[in-house]
Amino acid sequence: MKFTSSLSAISIAAIGAVSFANADCQMSGGNYYCSKAEAIVYSDVGYSGSYMDVSFMDENSCSCSQSSVQVSGSLAPLDEELSVHFRGPVRLLQFGVYYPAGNSNLNKRDEDDVDCVQTVQKHQHKRDVAVQYVEVTSTVYVNGNGESVTSATAVPKAPGNPETGLVSSYTYVNTILSPSQTDSPSSAAASTTSLSPSPSSSSSSSTGSSSSAPASSSPASSNSGSTGSWVRSSYFQPGSASNCVFMNHQGGTAGSGTWSSCFGNSISFAGSDGLSGASSPQALNDVTIASGKEYMIFSGTECSGDSCGYHRENIPAYHGFGGSDKIFVFEFSMPSDTAGSGYNQDMPAIWLLNAKVPRTLQYGNSDCSCWKTGCGEMDLFEILTAGSDKLISHIHSGQGSNGQSSGGGGSQDYFTRPSSGTLKAAVIFNGSDKSVHIVEVDEDFEAELSSSTVSSWLNSAGSNAQML
């Protein structure tokens, strides 16, 4: 679910208590941007709590019933099944999902499909980068004049208002900076914001302090995912899809999904152009979809009975990608699109969403999805203002919501938008140390990833990492 203007407000406001004046951060288009990064690492992800899930959609009253779902543990609720979403302008060259060898999630794919794409030799890549760890225990809001405004009761206001934000204490977001930033590490001070901890967690650092993170928060910490190989469960190249299904919001137009005056178009199979509907699963062609257009990817395993929980009737219902240990890989470009001036013009994005949301109602009555109560979204690469070249990351979940709305946090550091050429990246969910790593990579996405390759991604700071 993407509400771009709301996300912009949150990204402005939910910043660390150290002033941006002490960092090399600039405001552009209503958003602060700090340092170019090669990786962003979210630590201490997961909490014990609940969200409200849809239990029935009533076409007669145009209303939805909800029931409480309890969540707990490492990465919760992002350990639940996720769908993968794309908004143009974007061209997808590769997509894949991996699980640790022997993981039960691998049973959902066809063994023969894993080797359907020829593999090539991998390349090891060592990065000389810096890592910043920032811990804060309060939230500072920066208004349009650059003035710090601290509040114990502030809540999100109208979209576009720069004096908005979420209130909670925060733990860590670690940003691995690009080599060009390592010469002057002080310029990166406080250039990250942080992810809200569970209600039971606590922090003893002083407001605005900067220190080395504990071992459990370090990208170099041990993890179960790095001790064995990872096997590809799903894979896509233009014109070929293995154990993954492309969908969009064209329900009722071309033989799949449904439409109603209450809830509009449901999800449907996407045509090979990504834009039209289809009556059966189609592999996406080599296409660049335009601004504001969206499609999504589910696994190739169809829901049966109540295996996916409640979902809207008469839709193509498929499982997402679940588990606390999983890797998503991408190769994509986001070319400039200045042909129009509509909503989200030239603002591409790639994000993960709790798969329950599109199976009920991604856009519309907020009571008809679990999103607003924190069932989980992770923005991987998102442009916040038209034409920007800076891709921001953010997490939205019930973690740190303090009983109000969905909480979360993100980084003001950014990846460079691949307007020409492509960006290759891995998103590693590491349940053993409650971290999520978003890392630019050079390696090829083979049918199996060795433990050394995954370890190199998780430890991408290398031995030269500087703890600020």
In short:
The protein has 468 residues and is mainly beta. 6% of the residues lie in helices and 32% in strands. The chain contains 4 helices and 28 strands.
SS-derived structural category? mainly beta
User: Could you say how many structural domains there are in total?
Assistant: 1
* Main sheet properties: 11 strands, antiparallel
Strand tally, please?
Answer: 28
- How much of the polypeptide forms β-strand, as a percent range? 25-35%
Shape: globular
InterPro entries: YJL171C/Tos1_C (IPR018805), YJL171C/Tos1_N (IPR018807)
Keywords: Cell wall biogenesis/degradation, Glycosidase, Hydrolase, Signal
Region (Disordered): 180-229, 395-414
Signal peptide: 1-23
Q: What is the secondary structure topology, with strand pairs?
A:
Blueprint: H1 4-13, E1 26-28, E2 31-33, E3 37-42, E4 49-58, E5 63-71, E6 82-87, E7 90-100, H2 111-114, E8 131-132, E9 140-142, E10 148-150, E11 173-177, E12 230-237, E13 240-242, E14 244-248, E15 259-260, E16 264-265, E17 268-270, E18 277-278, E19 288-289, E20 294-299, E21 325-333, E22 349-354, H3 356-360, E23 377-382, E24 390-397, E25 407-416, E26 423-430, E27 435-440, E28 448-449, H4 451-458
Protein name: glucan endo-1,3-beta-D-glucosidase
GO molecular function: glucan endo-1,3-beta-D-glucosidase activity
Signal peptide: 1-23
Could you characterize what this model shows?
This protein is mainly β and 468 residues long. The protein has one domain. It is 6% helix and 32% strand. It contains 4 helices and 28 strands. The protein has helices at 4-13, 111-114, 356-360, 451-458; strands spanning 26-28, 31-33, 37-42, 49-58, 63-71, 82-87, 90-100, 131-132, 140-142, 148-150, 173-177, 230-237, 240-242, 244-248, 259-260, 264-265, 268-270, 277-278, 288-289, 294-299, 325-333, 349-354, 377-382, 390-397, 407-416, 423-430, 435-440, 448-449. Strands 3, 7, 8, 11, 12, 13, 19, 21, 26, 27 and 28 form an 11-stranded antiparallel sheet that branches. Strands 18-17-14-20-6-22-23-24-25 form a 9-stranded antiparallel sheet. A hairpin with a 2-residue loop joins strand 12 and strand 13 (240-242). The longest helix has 10 residues, at 4-13. It is globular and about 55 Å long. The relative contact order is 0.25. Residues 1-23 form the signal peptide. One of its GO terms (cellular component) is fungal-type cell wall.
